[in-house]
Amino acid sequence: MLGVSRQFLVNLLERDEIPYHMVGTHRRIYVRDLLAYKAKRDSKRRQVLDELTRAEAEEGLYDLEPPDDRAE
Questions:
Q1: Is 90 exceeded by the pLDDT of residue 20?
Q2: Predicted pLDDT of residue 67
Q3: 24, 28, 29, 42: least CB-packed within 10 angstroms?
Q4: 24-49 burial by CB neighbour count: b if 16+ within 10 A, else e?
Q5: How many CA atoms are closer than 13 Å to the CA of 10, on its beta-carbon side?
Q6: Sequence-distant (≥ 6) Cβ neighbours of residue 35 within 8 angstroms
Q7: Please, which pLDDT band fits residue 10 given cuts at 50, 70 and 90?
Q8: Contact status, residue 35 vs residue 71, Cβ threshold 8 Å
Q9: Residue 13 region, left (φ>0) first, then alpha (ψ -120 to 50), else beta?
Q10: First-last CA distance in the chain
């Protein structure tokens, strides 16, 4: 659901970024907690991308033509 590796997920759990509980030796995550983490992560990503887009637009980077590097 998150599109991350198992080890990355384990690290998130150990840093208490996603709540979990242990059943024997296995970590269990409630889907509501997983979806809450995903929504928070996606919201942060969108905010950063919006800020980057706004900064580039203010600097006029969208108006520049890319260099023509094609060999003739």
A1: yes
A2: 77
A3: 24
A4: eeeeebeeeebeebeeeeeeeeeeee
A5: 5
A6: 1
A7: very high
A8: no
A9: alpha
A10: 47
Q: Show Cβ contacts of residue 17 under 8 Å, excluding neighbours closer than 6 positions.
A: 37
The alpha-carbon radius of gyration of the chain (Å, integer) is 20
Please list, in sequence order, all residues whose beta carbon lies within 8 angstroms of the beta carbon of residue 12, skipping any fewer than 6 positions away: 4, 18, 37
What does the alpha-carbon distance between residue 38 and residue 8 come to, in Å, rounded to a whole number? Answer: 14
Asked if residue 63 has pLDDT above 80, the reply is: no
